[in-house]
Design goal:
There is one protein chain. By secondary structure, the protein is an all-alpha fold. The chain is about 75% helix and about 0% strand. The protein is globular, with a radius of gyration of 17 Å.
Length: about 160
């Protein structure tokens, strides 16, 4: 049940974030919609880490590599993605301090290291690809966003 709820909330918050970004591009003052969407998306992705893995609970035989690829890496990616999204939310609030740097470094660094470590279970056990794909997609998009905001690449792109 938690898996279905988090999926629906994630779709809702990604949709509202998309609408907010489109309205921002059209010069509409709708910054609060983006902030609410980022906060809700961070909470939803954090809650995805609490969803139990169905592949481990149904299998009789499990070794460390199955546990590592099916449970540990996706949970670490979800939690670090939530931390990174929280950092993007703090950055987007335009506070007078650099409080966003700590979540950027912690979330982004953990995502980067976990993406590198996730290659090992994929090589040793190809069945770990199915549970890792959603976590890798979320983690890599948050990592790309963190790199974009950290190095202030918006000044090099044509964005109004």
């Amino acid at each position: 049940m938690l898996k279905n709820l988090t999926t629906y909330f994630e779709i809702f918050f990604v949709g509202t974030l998309g609408i907010g970004l489109i309205l921002l591009y059209l010069d509409s003052p709708i910054q609060s919609l983006i902030n609410i969407s980022l906060g809700g998306l961070a909470i939803t992705i954090f809650l995805k880490a609490l969803v139990p893995s169905p592949t481990i609970s149904q299998s009789k035989k499990s070794n460390f590599m199955i546990l590592f690829g099916h449970v540990i890496i996706p949970k670490v990616l979800y939690i670090s993605s939530a931390i990174g999204l929280f950092g993007i939310l703090i950055y987007n609030l335009d506070l007078p301090h650099d409080g966003y740097l700590s979540p950027f470094y912690e979330g982004g660094g953990t995502i980067f290291i976990t993406l590198i470590i996730s290659i090992v279970p994929l090589i040793l056990d190809p069945t770990t690809l199915k549970p890792l794909i959603p976590a890798i997609i979320r983690g890599s998009t948050v990592l790309i966003s963190i790199v974009y905001f950290e190095f202030e690449l918006e000044q090099y792109l044509m964005w109004p």
